[in-house]
Design a protein that fits this description.
Largest interface: A-D, 57 and 69 residues
Number of domains of chain A: 2
CATH architecture of the largest domain in chain A: Alpha-Beta Barrel
Largest sheet of chain A: 8 strands, parallel
CATH superfamily of the largest domain in chain A: Aldolase class I
Number of strands of chain A: 16
Shape of chain A: globular
Oligomer: homotetramer
Structural class of chain A: alpha/beta
Chain lengths: 501, 501, 501, 501
């Protein structure tokens, strides 16, 4: 709403109740009275700023255009004279004090030597709420850990005495050049952990020749991210399909227009999982954090994940695939396949690829790992003569922490591997530089491990280089005989003379 | 004994010795001299109240009619003038003080997000004796834990891109409608953990459309429970068969008359197991708690479980099945089958169903889990052409904590799943409301997991949705090389600068 | 040496050097100068008593006749006038003080409810040296624990609805009646843990109808033990074969004359194992404890086990079996068989039985458990038509702690099971009464478990009652990814309000 | 450079900057200005001694001739008058103080009873940097631990009643007599842990009849080691192949001339692995330690391992084997084979043997253990008729801690077993005496275990003596259900009366 008159702080301050609620964001006033019940983060957090400048709370967790997109123009009240607005003094919480201390004591990025280190650091320098949202997975969090364990069940069969003076781990993904057989997988709400959010990924990807998959639920807007990319820098788009297909159509076509090279449709999330760490965190605070996504309304209040997911359409089905093909020329990839049966259906539906994924363990708990499914899928597709096919690529994600993990997936038939949380934790800990360091670690590890494996290029990574015979085994221990174990006294080694120590 | 004269406190107080022992319960006096050696809880606890009002000790652990049922009418001495009875002052024990503190600090029910939470809470807000009785299992408690572990050996194979806008997890059990494919399995002595005892279950079941199986050893009387049910609310009955079959006949026929819809005869408990936690607990206190059941005498004194079980007939055999069929028209289900052989015998004996169960791990330790037996049983019954059969249902119980567990059992051939302890712990922690919350959690989890699994109704849950290949494996670790492990120094991640923390 | 003159303390006291060393034991003097280097427990402990009364040190660890048997008559110096002998004041060590305290705080025997409890108690009420000798096993102590773990890999398949009003677990072993399918296996040096030593076993066996196998290395002499037995009480004898076969011949024939019913020749101990706990214990003290066995000389000084074993003949071989058959009519059993190959050789050598045993894990570490070997052995003997044979019995020992373990071994083909350490710990903790309590626990468990298994007598325990499919599996974990596990944050349950606790 | 004039301390002291840097080592001055950037240990440590006597820092980690070999003669400035040189006072660091304390409290070597003990001791008495270099392995250190775990998956099948009066565990390796079926495998940089470095091994090998494999990266020079050997004492040589083949040719031919009996070419290290413990250690100190090897230049600075490895030629391939055969008559063995495919290629290339090895877990992480590979290799070679062949020997290394481990490898087809770290730790802890004690422990264990196994000589160790059925299994646990495990309360044993303790 174009309002010629500039408002003043005192004027806005009068509208400070549930029934009449204005707030100021980025120097403009908005009437959010009607929006209150629809706010994904709950009313409480807005009401805290009723009649006041809410920018400080709004900023870190919303794309700049979220409020203008979600409020009808009639609620845009126009600019406020900054000199008349009382400065909002945010109290410094105990958590913020703790975070400041840890940020000051943060290990130098030079001492980071593995992807695990980013997680170690991130956990202590980001808000608990962010950590809960990022690290959580569904139910008992068995699948998220199984994703990692699966890689431990595959062993290398290294070849020796090959001239490995030079090794090359670059590849193509959907025809796009990539300096690594790894892409940055979509993760949501990056600003919870770093003020630059997903832009850290975009900029690091530009500098390193790696491809980023942009998330529907990114806390930076799609255009911000594309704008931050270098000319010609390939990007993929992860898509949650909206109940309102028109919103989805516009979103997809806008992405294509802006040059996105692949559309990854998430198919394993008709509803977002129950993530108990996230749910518990919601309980301890008094406010909700959330992302207002693409104009739809959300009602639930059960942790960040569920707050932001109500727009996702649970009716999405195979019948929708032709429609997607009709609205875009981008390659279509189905993200979240978990069985050979669905891989076959996907192939027959004419898409360009699949991601064997369980959504980082955040959806159906005790679903199998992508790596385990990979063996089943490649066998089934080969049995039908569908593979090899240069126009159909298989990706895997979940649990990757080492270049050696990637090499195992490649040996078993993956074209590339998606890595999500480690890059997220990298920028939470060290911003863009962290992501670049993560990619450098991958490079060092690829050089090392390809040499030691005897593979000079991605083509030379063959199934015989791994022993995956244990991959499909699922060991669960028989409960122990505690009485026996508590009476057994373990052996100990030679003893130093304690009186001299 | 109808005694016109009203007794006075001082009169009763004279009978305060082992050889002449009267007590007052609910305002009436009883001569329990002859009953002393038969009291399942031991003589000591009664003698403590010899000549006094024992109501405060009697109340929490006996059905109201226990004393009148167990004592011959000649020992009923009639009403006592309340104004003449010295008030019994119960000393407040250390345990009671501790419980009060924990009850005050109890987590809000709103923060309960999984069935596990009820157990976490219950353990700290109920008497140790109750916890020992409820949580204990036989010998080394391997089977009780294996029951849970078995579910961890089954993995999902989720299907995607099915329209899961609406999902429905209601079903029928023995022809009765149930809003969940779960029934409340029988557990004993509920009043140990909550003053309302099993009525919490009955009332919650009424409100949620779930079926309760009433326990023979409930601390509320059968009729109290039935009276608490809503009109038309289906109930099942769990039966321990008495050495005196006449008692059993009356009990069963009374149940049928009162509308019970299924008779679950326990066949895995010719003698109740040695439950060491329970036995140890008995040792630390000076008093026994017990339930006087259906008029039989008990002699042993080895924990609650064995105290209350002496009436159970160890001679019960297949020969008795025709007799049961002759005394009731209720469907008969054998509860406690553990092999394919016995499942076949049960089918051929013409019963309407079986529960694959090891009694929550409370009977034969290192017996296999019901879930594992399910695979063996369905294969054997199918091999003989006995399945599918709409008039023969298979249930499983033990170890269920998640809707996902239930879905696994259903995929493997179960019609429904019995859940005992979790509902028990739910009412110990929060009464009827706890049970309703537990059922709400099941609902939330069913909605989520059925969507993620791609099953819109119970019918769509098929064997292909699970990978149960590891179910029959039993891993026990080779004892570790402690000297090696004690010299190995694990890797650690990047270090924060400790001087700044 | 018959010496008419009675010696005096001062006379003996003059002989107090390494070159001239007399000691007094049980009121008589001995010249041990020449014996010093041969003492299995080392010279130091004797020299501590040179010229003094050594009875207090001698008593607890030697049979009364050890000194007279081991010293030539010419070194027997005859009686000493007690009134002239200075009383040896034993200093009270820190360990003795600790033991006194623990003995005073010992749990009442009424609170012992499983065999494990005896071990829990014994460990704290016997000298460290005794605990080290008893509890130790060879090398990394993997086999001793594997013995127990093997039972955890066998699961029950219980049968229901059999009339189990009465169950009977009595049997015969080598034709001798036994109230349990369990015999007391030989363990050495009982006096280290209890002043009555192995007599506790003999007396308890008499009272309970159980058969004791007497150990060659018992700290009570063979005759003491036989004298303590009731008339007709069956005993077996465990035999270490001496390098001097004449000693062995006399020993065996003496045993037969005294009524022993079975000769168990140990065949898995040509040399006693390296038991590191025992070796380390030797290092910390300044004195050796040992048993002087049957007149042979020992030289080594590496823990109790090796000190006492040098007389054992490593040349013992299959060629010796006919000789044993020629010197005795007792049934001959080979104790320590570990493969099907040797079981076949034993059968063909015409012995009456075999014990599948690894010597309680004290000999070859990473040898398999007797239970695992049982499956291999029964299959091989059956394949050759050697089984069933009423004149050839198979026993198993090692790792048994429950009646349920015994039932598993019986189901897999054992005639009876040997139990050693648990009975040893029982008398260390509670003397004869402890052993009787242990047997009572077995009885209670047999009653319970046979009922729950649906077996009314030993004959009804059949292979189909167990699932032993995992018995031969040996799981060792892949080393964990510590960095991953250290960054994973486990789920926690609902939280109590800590400010109220 | 032959310089007639003797320099003085003050003269040298003037050259104390980065642009003009002289140091004194062993009484002679050197101009290291140009060498500074090439120093594997970094410039910092040299600059600390610019213009000063650096002997104290140089001595412990370089062979005496390292400086003369690496600097061109023109930089050799000649002798310095010792009386004019200021004595360098090394500050005593906190670590040195700690080490002194631990060295004083070191357990007596008499109390060492297993190879594990050396590691327990070494870890606390050597500098952290040494421990990090020695103990580290690549990436997640899974393979280093798996090497040990593999032995735990093989079980013995011992034979009884064989006359084992005498047992003999001597053998030949490449035709050389060895008193053990074990050789001392090459480990680098021994002086980091002990001032005598690898000479401890050489001297102990001489005294015990064991064969040492000399490491290319030994901190004692090759000639020092050979000079320390007894006449006729067999030595093997481990070879890293240099990018400059001429250096390698000279080195090999010099070794042959000095009597080396076997050339073990390392084929699994085209680049040395990323060893994170070692890398992290580099970060905490301010100085690098390193070995200047054979005249090549190194540039990297990522832990000791990578600093010293840049000379290794990653182009080494099968095509080089004929050249090696052309330059030496020594038997050639390829060290680091990890698959049957490469074992076949090696055999066909005409070498005399292979070492199945993963370089002690220091190269490709999650490569399989040598023991596991052994089964695959012997099967493949036998299938092609290549085995048995007296001129082709197979060795295994990695994870051996017990004679029983060696016996398992021999039973599965190895001719001998290489043991590296345990001997290294032995001399770190106790010098030459430690190595001799380690060999004595092996002897004791071989005697014991061969007797118990029923094998009188190496020939009698046959495949049937082991059950290796679990060797190729790789168990990784399904992530645990933490909520369940945290609510389960383990059984406990009988309780002592705590008020009396």
């Amino acid at each position: 709403m174009s309002n010629a008159r500039v408002l003043t702080g005192p004027e806005v301050a009068k509208h400070n109740s549930r029934d009449d609620c204005w707030i100021i964001v980025h120097g403009k006033a908005y009437d959010v009275t009607d929006f209150l019940p629809e706010h994904p983060g709950g009313q409480a957090i807005i009401l805290k700023y009723a009649g006041k400048d809410a920018t400080v709370a709004y900023e870190p967790i919303h794309p700049p255009d979220a409020i203008t997109t979600n409020l009808p123009p009639s609620k845009h009240l126009g600019p406020v004279d900054a000199s008349t607005v009382a400065k909002v003094v945010q109290e410094v919480t105990e958590e913020q004090k703790r975070l400041e201390k840890y940020r000051a004591a943060k290990p130098s990025i030079d001492t980071v030597i593995s992807l695990h280190d980013f997680e170690t650091v991130a956990r202590l320098v980001i808000p608990e709420k962010a950590w809960a949202y990022y690290s959580s997975a569904s139910d008992d969090e068995i699948t998220i850990r199984e994703n990692r364990m699966a890689y431990q069940r595959v062993w290398f069969r290294p070849r020796i005495l090959r001239d490995v003076s030079t090794v090359d781990w670059s590849t193509t993904i959907l025809g796009q050049k990539s300096t690594l057989p790894v892409y940055i997988s979509a993760t949501a709400l990056g600003k919870l952990g770093h003020p630059d959010g997903e832009l850290c990924l975009t900029r690091a990807a530009a500098n390193t020749g790696v491809i980023q998959m942009v998330a529907t639920l990114a806390s930076c807007s799609f255009d911000e991210i594309v704008d931050a990319a270098k000319p010609g820098q390939p990007l993929f788009l992860q898509l949650y399909v909206n109940r309102d297909r028109e919103i989805t159509r516009k979103y997809v076509q806008h992405a294509e227009k802006r040059g996105v090279k692949g559309l990854f449709i998430t198919v394993d999330a008709p509803q977002l999982g129950r993530r108990e760490k996230d749910m518990r965190m919601k309980q301890v605070g008094d406010e909700g954090v959330a992302e207002v996504q693409r104009g739809q309304k959300v009602k639930k209040d059960e942790g960040v994940a569920r707050a932001i997911s109500s727009f996702i359409d649970p009716s999405l089905s195979w019948k929708d695939i032709p429609w997607f093909k009709s609205i875009t020329k981008m390659p279509i990839i189905l993200k979240g396949i978990g069985t050979a049966e669905d891989a076959i259906l996907a192939y027959e539906a004419g898409v360009q690829g699949i991601v064997l994924s369980n959504h980082g363990g955040r959806q159906l708990d005790t679903a199998r790992s992508g790596l385990e499914v990979l063996v089943e899928v490649t066998a089934a597709l080969r049995a039908r003569g569908y593979l090899p096919n240069p126009n159909f690529e298989i990706y895997v994600d979940g649990g990757v922490r080492r270049a050696s993990d990637v090499l195992k997936a490649l040996a078993l038939g993956a074209k590339a591997v998606g890595v999500g949380r480690p890059f997220l934790y990298a920028f939470c800990a060290y911003g863009q530089e962290g992501v670049e360091k993560a990619i450098q670690i991958f490079r060092d590890e690829f050089e090392m491990n390809m040499r030691l494996l005897g593979a000079r290029s991605i083509d030379e990574i063959v199934p015989e280089m791994v022993d995956a015979s244990a991959l499909t085994s699922h060991s669960v221990l028989t409960p122990p005989d505690n009485l026996f174990h508590s009476t057994y006294q373990p052996l100990i080694g030679a003893k130093f003379n304690e009186s001299k120590l």
